[in-house]
Amino acid sequence: MKDLHRYIATVETTKHAALAAASGPLDAKAIAAQFRKTKTSEGKIAGVLASLARLGHVATDGKTFTLRRVA
To answer: What residue spans define the domains of the chain?
Structure first.
């Protein structure tokens, strides 16, 4: 469970950096490319991003994700 929390924290930090720097929406594969194990990480990252979308932290069209920006 400790590893899961660490993984989610890493994804959260990386997701914010990747989405904040992106000029448009990114998919889980593009964010997973920033990790060493892209093939194994993509599914986990997609799950975390979907959860973050349900919580309102990111916006999604079902395939790509963008950082919600508040005024």
So the answer is: 2-67
Instruction: Return the DSSP state at 55.
Output: T
Distances (CA, A) of 31 to 1, 41, 45: 23, 9, 8
Asked if 34 and 18 touch (Cβ cutoff 8 Å), the reply is yes
Fold of domain 2-67:
Arc Repressor Mutant, subunit A (1.10.10)
- pLDDT for 29-62, tens place per residue? 887 777 777 566 778 888 888 888 888 888 889 8
- Rounded to two decimals, the pTM is 0.59
